[in-house]
Amino acid sequence: MRSVLALLPLLLPACGGASAPPVTVAELLPAGVQEVDPAVLEVLEQRVGAVNRDLGSAAVRRSLALALEANSFWAEAIAQYRLALGMDAADWDALLHLAGCLRQAGDLSGELDALERVVAARPDDRAALNRLAVARLDQGNLDGARELFRTLRSLLPEHPHGPLGLGQVELEAGNAEVALEHLESARALGRGAPFIDFVLGQCLAELGRTDEAMVLLDRGADSNRPQIATALEDEKARYSVSRADRISRAGRLHEAGRSAEARLILERLREQDPDDVPVLNNLAAAQMKLGRQDEAIATLEHVLELEPNQYAAWFNLASIHFDRGQEQMSASGSVDADLIALAMQAADRAVEFGGHLANMHVMRAKVLMLARSYAEAVTEFQASIRLGMTNEDVYLNCSKVQMNLGDQAGGIQTLMDGAARNPSWAEVRIQLLPYWVARRDGLAARGVLAEIEALIPEDPRLPKLRDYLKSNGL
Amino acid sequence: MSTLRLKTLPLLLVAACGGGESSTGSSSSSQPWFEDVGEACGAAVVHDLGRSERRYWIPEITGSGLGLFDADGDGDLDLFICQGGALQDGDPASASDALLLNDGLGNFTDITASAGIEDHLFGMGCAAADYDADGDIDLFVTNVGRNVLWRNEGDGTFTDATEEAGLVDEAWGTSAAFLDYDGDGDLDLFYCNYIRWAATNEVPCNNKLGEPDYCHPNNYDAPDSDRLWRNEGDGRFVDASQESGISKSFGNGLGVAWGDLTGDGRVDIYVANDGMANQLWVNMGSGRFQDQALAKGCALSGEGKAEAGMGVLLEDLDGDLRQDLFVTHLRSETNTFYRSKARRFADDTRRTGTVEASLNFTAFGVGAADFDHDGALDYYVANGRVGDATPRFSEERVLAEPDQLFRGAGDGTFTEVLPRGGTREEVLSLGRGAAFGDLDGDGDIDAVVADNGGPVRVLRNVAPKRGTWLLLDLREADGRTALGARVTLQAGGRKQLRQVQTAYSFCATNDPRVHFGVPEGAQVESIQVEWLDGTMQDLGALEPGRLHTVRRSSDR
Q: How far A411 CA lies from chain B's nearest CA (Å)?
């Protein structure tokens, strides 16, 4: 059996001397680990080499700890941070990162103790103050957390961390009205940070303002607390080099619209392993975004040689042919039959192998629309909705096609399903308004309008929508 | 198996029945609370995945569960154990799910074959109740693939009534619950579905070390909707998922509990989802449900995160006579305590004193009971990882973890009992389903824990007691278990709230009887029942130290 406690003997030598013993990568890694990502291994070997060349350097030892932390070796990083601190007890940055690792390892009292020491030594360290305040909040020390969040608010008056924390403290203390003031202030400073929306949503729900709360809670779900970077974050980021980290970094870049940078990372990963399917799929996505469609097709065809049932690759292939078809349609009003056939074939395969996924059906629906097979397209849209589709456009498109085919009731039902599916969707609600007006149901129409106003209060269409109801006597 | 131990076990139990209720005065941490008697009591069943070599397919690491129910109508709890199974054509057959009869003293005999309940599908969980109102307890088993309804024929045998009942479903079912959601007097069925999975949909995943490992369910991007089946009263069920609104919402469903969570007198359903927001299906009446988990504060953690929900409890853990929710989670997440407040729930985990203790473990099955009879609910969690991580507890079984036991103070705070799991020594396993009930008739609550790929553990309660007990077997006028009824017992001036419920934990069905601990020196002052339809009944001050069967009068 092995546990965090088993590390204690490793820590003891650091207590007595000014330097720590030499180390090897094999000794560093957890017992039983057979295989480590080569890029991670390389970084660790570099850092270990540096440590062994300068056994008395706390900064070099700290860098090794950072490299371990960056690759989620929490217990091992803790040991190295402690060795570094044994050489330089005043390295508050190292102690701050040690606190983070202790938290990851589940040692919350150790984390709290480390943070208290950092803040005692550096009372203006914003990152440490924020983390300590959150740690105190986590431990239920509301007075202690309140004090630090107040300090933070005065140190960073233009940032949301102080009022956000104060709002959480007051909410926890049962003072929802007071919390609301802090959280509204945090929201004004937070520039749309979804985490603040979530906490504000909790507060509004506590106050019984459920409709307003729902929108914020939905928007803020699964977001991250705004953090304050430490002085070592950049160095730590340089050590985060595992294949998984690099793919995820590429994904984040791609999502942020930086597909060219994502492509470069993925190209390098492909050089290391040309048959790595997740890398190839991600690379194709980046190539598509960058307009390198022929390269993307070649990449996807290679994926399908390796794994013919890769529905994601079929989906992307269908998407490329579909986009080309749409371009032809815009330019000439018609689409080559060959292009439709290619798109259809890929979409068929996407549904064949990935029919359990809503997106596959949407892609096939889009291709069917291109092929003017509208009734079949509705069937595919509906299949995607049954499978939990979370894209509002699908509901809108499906409804529109249904109505164009003369199925008014079906179209309305699709819109209603969309409104029920997601309380944050404004467009389906806008499309539903004429239905309630036609039924002369003022209560429902005004209710939907109120929801729209809460969802998109700044939308320029709102005055017209209000007039629309008024002009119909509702 | 030791014959000697088998012979001596009943004697020990009889001794416990006679006078084991007084406090020993010893520290709880110095004496074990549970003794693993799995093999000795005849429950030597090893969870069989069908293949020894893991393919890193997600079902391998998710199952399985088990259940305690009275299969032969003799008044004690028999044991049903789900087994793994083939996941694609050509896979070797696994051992069958197993049914073991209890002799009333906690000794078990395997009657799977004679009961006709042999099944080699990949079992996940079960729910037990008398769905056809014929006086015996039937069993519904969820599988990766076709679920099975076993009708109890009342003669020691079961018949596969799945098709006859119209319950055919090929999804991946997990936790299940019988409940009367429409108030028509018969038992409807709800179960969670996990993901839309098939061997052909598997995706390769690697852990942080770059090694092949099990995927997170969200890697499949294929959450399923849960199912609600309405009992037609004639042995048939109709799929009410669509009309009720249940099918509108998707999640990686693993755990379920139900009760009146909104105080409107109607039955609501709570579902724990793995890596997605949980659902609180609020019963709107007329057979319609609406997911209000987000508004009610029990969809996400207090930090707004969708956590890896596995097992669920619906219990009054803080003694304020309101039922709270408790959800078990993955390593690096806490097990989350949603405290019931006036309007909604709030994540109050940080006030339970358990944050640090739960962060390093992946918890599945969970049960709350007053294991030491001090008048406060304790809880037990079955732990076991779903992917490799460091530090490991065992190099032989790298995913193994110890279970955990927490002693309640009655105010929503808990202290971990050491050694972990409350046994004399820590036991490392891949804990999954855990079921709770009085197996040996001695008035305290025992536990049975399923171990993914390992032997089932029967944990006999040997905790040093700080008081006595009282068990209530509440029945409707027609003799069926009064599922959903709530009981408030007052002893020593303090009230305790329980609900008649079998569906909680992870993929488990549990003892339907209501158990109370009565602290030493306290007298039972009153017991009040709130039947499912809201009718109140005062039972007076029943005598502690025994089981009371109470049948609701039919002239209400």
A: 17
